[in-house]
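Repro:
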Amino acid sequence: YAAMGAHRYLKEEQVTKQGQNQTQTTAVVLKDEKQALPMLMAKWPRDLAKPEAAREFLMVCNTYGLDPFLGHIVPYQGRPYICEEGWRYKVDTESPGQLIALEAAMAEDADYERRRVNKDDLLACVIITRKYPTGATRTERHWAIVFKREMEQRGQELEGRGARYITLDPAYMAEKRAKVRALRAVFADVLTAIRLPSLEFAGALAAL
């Protein structure tokens, strides 16, 4: 696992930095309720059909400093969910420079046997490294699964909205779940205050 996912991580790191620059612009919009509410309702017409729902969602976004227009957080059935991008953003802003590596890959046959995972399910592994200001480093391995029953879901069962990433690219979702689990574990000291569920682990996924 030593070299797995390095190229993907570097690409995601570039995207994260671009997102931080864009956030400086959209953050101004989010602070202006009159400007933000119509934009939110237009982007999520089903979940934020009522101004009250959009207003509550906007309040959550501003409370946690997350930008829905950059994919940090999304609404689904009246509840806000944080995405992997949102967790990454909070880590990068609250602990800048401390996330050294976040490398994901699908598990090998031996991993399924050791962890007693059904071969019909998809198991992903992430290796995460954090470097503290003291110079000390912390490296951990975290796992996540996308179950066969999730892969068999169909969009129409969720009114055409949910589980599209699971049904179309379940391996990608397994890796995203592992990344979220790793971030929340290794950076628990800066993420614990965010008491919101992760989209990747939601039973039905909102369309991003």
